[in-house]
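Human: We require from you a standard protein entry with sequence in single-letter code and fold as tokens, and nothing else.

Assistant:
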Amino acid sequence: MDLCRTLEEYISREAVVRIIDKLAGKPLCFDDFPKGEEYIFAVRNKLISALKAAKKANF
């Protein structure tokens, strides 16, 4: 969650949600979302990469 909030500061909340939804293959909701470990790690890795790119672009 902290990763999402930090990335939001650089690219916006909407952009973070788009990354998460794209990896899920659909818009997520509370009663229908991927629960697999693979998806969680894919989201984490993608958000970390996006944060690194955003930080690099701002310096």
